[in-house]
Amino acid sequence: MERTLILVKPDGVQRSLVGTIISKFEGRGLKLIGLKMQQLSKETAEQHYGEHKGKPFYDGLVNFITSGPLVAMAFEGDNCIEICRSTMGATNPVSAGPGTIRGDFAVDIGRNVVHGSDGPETAERELNIFFKPEELVNYEKNADTWVRES
Ligand code: DAT
Ligand code: MG
What we know:
This protein has helices at residues 10-14, 18-28, 42-48, 58-65, 80-88, 101-105, 120-130, 144-147; strands spanning 3-8, 31-38, 70-76, 114-116.
């Protein structure tokens, strides 16, 4: 079963978009299995964004993601990584389609309101940064038969 990490970044929290962003993923029928608010330390931010170390935007990215509280979520379900990425829209909001989170609520690549894991290995690594195994909840969702055929 696929799992993914989603973050409402500090800009999304400050702009009161937490509920709206959670609703976008929930509304598609994805199963929420973890949720918490926290402010990242520089060390945790560097761990999370390690793949971007050395890039010109790296320092700004670490400063931004540690600049205020964020909301971390875990979703579970077949294809949830790709489903979440398409719900988020393109990394640069200038190119994000209308109806996507970034397309509807962002204009700047450095303030793109949401993060989502980009593949199964990344998702596992990132979920481990934000959640202890026991913080991810195992449960049946009765509505799932109305969301997925099988
Ligand atoms: P995504 O967040 O869509 O997975 P990414 O992993 O390539 O995109 O980059 C991580 C974040 O870094 C991204 O959400 C915003 C920032 N970023 C990426 N490319 C950038 C650039 N060229 N200039 C400024 N910020 C950038
Ligand atoms: Mg990424």
